[in-house]
C-alpha cells in the first residue's frame, strides 16, 4: 500500500562529475520520479542583529529498480538514477535540461525554481528497512 504522503512528482538531476566523464565535462542526467514525499520548511533565526532565513528540504523516493549507487550509475546512466551530494531536486515535472551553457547551468536552473528546488547535501539509502523502503535526500 502506498503511503498517502507520497503524492508528489519531482525532477532529479544527477551530476556526473568531470573526473567520471570521457570528455572531461560535467554531465547532468534528468529523471522525473512520481509518488515521492516532499517537505520544505522555512527556518528563521537570529544571530546578534542579523536575521537569517533558511529552507530545509526532505525528499523521500520509494524504492525503485532504476536506482543504482553512483559508481554503478556512471557506467550505465540511461534509464537509471542515483543520489549524491550536489545533485539537484526540483518539485514537479521540470522540462528544463542542465547543459552547462549560459542560461542552462545548474545554478541558473536551481535559482529559477527556488524555493521549490534544492541542492542535495545529505543522502541515505533506507531500503534495508522492513517497511517503507526509500531513498532520503536532504538539503
Short summary:
It is built from two helices and seven strands, in the order E-E-E-H-E-H-E-E-E. It has helices at residues 70-73, 106-113; strands at residues 8-16, 27-47, 50-62, 88-91, 117-119, 122-126, 134-138. The mean pLDDT is 94.
SSE arrangement:
Elements: E1 8-16, E2 27-47, E3 50-62, H1 70-73, E4 88-91, H2 106-113, E5 117-119, E6 122-126, E7 134-138
Account of the protein in words:
- The protein is mainly beta and 139 residues long.
- It is 9% helix and 43% strand.
- The chain has 2 helices and 7 strands; from the N terminus they run E-E-E-H-E-H-E-E-E.
- The protein has helices at residues 70-73, 106-113, and strands at residues 8-16, 27-47, 50-62, 88-91, 117-119, 122-126, 134-138.
- A hairpin with a 7-residue loop joins strand 6 (122-126) and strand 7 (134-138).
- The protein starts with 7 loop residues before the first strand and ends with a strand.
- The mean pLDDT is 94.
Amino acid at each position: 500500500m502506498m503511503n498517502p504522503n507520497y503524492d508528489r512528482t519531482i525532477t532529479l538531476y544527477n551530476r556526473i562529475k568531470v573526473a567520471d566523464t570521457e570528455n572531461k565535462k560535467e554531465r547532468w542526467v534528468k529523471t522525473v520520479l512520481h509518488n515521492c514525499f516532499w517537505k520544505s520548511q522555512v527556518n528563521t533565526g537570529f544571530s546578534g542583529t542579523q536575521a537569517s532565513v533558511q529552507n530545509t528540504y526532505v525528499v523521500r523516493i520509494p524504492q525503485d529498480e532504476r536506482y543504482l549507487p553512483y559508481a554503478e550509475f556512471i557506467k550505465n546512466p540511461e534509464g537509471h538514477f542515483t543520489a549524491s551530494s550536489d545533485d539537484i531536486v526540483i518539485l514537479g515535472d521540470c522540462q528544463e535540461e542542465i547543459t552547462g551553457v549560459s542560461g542552462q547551468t545548474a545554478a541558473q536552473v536551481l535559482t529559477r525554481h527556488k524555493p521549490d528546488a534544492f541542492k542535495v547535501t545529505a543522502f541515505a539509502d533506507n531500503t534495508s528497512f522492513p517497511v517503507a523502503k526509500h531513498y532520503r535526500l536532504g538539503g
